[in-house]
Amino acid sequence: MTKKLNEKIAELDKKVEWFYGDEFKLDEASAKYKEAVSLAKEIESDLKNLKNEIKIIEEDFTKE
């Protein structure tokens, strides 16, 4: 999951950089923004799942 998460974060960085780059076009901005928001939501969900996994592992270690 971590590798996939890192790849998603790198992809999001590229999408955000596009807004500051020379290739920025106002007519494409809305679609690019929606793509970035969707990807950000995926990343947020992945992070929540990872946090839950860590809590479960942590609980298992504290029980012993």
Any descriptors?
64 residues; mainly alpha
Could you walk me through the main structural features you see in this protein, from its secondary elements to its overall organization?
It contains two helices and no strands. It is mostly helical and 64 residues long. Helix 1 packs antiparallel against helix 2. The two termini are 27 Å apart.
Q: What gross morphology would you assign? A: elongated
Sequence stretches where pLDDT stays below 50 over 5 or more residues: none
- Whole-number tally of structural domains: 1
> Major beta sheet, specifics?
none
Beta strands, count: 0
Q: How much helical structure, as a percent, in the residues? A: over 70%
Cα-based radius of gyration, to the nearest Å: 17 Å
Order of helices and strands: HH
**What amount of the residues lies in strands?**
under 5%
What's the total helix number?
2
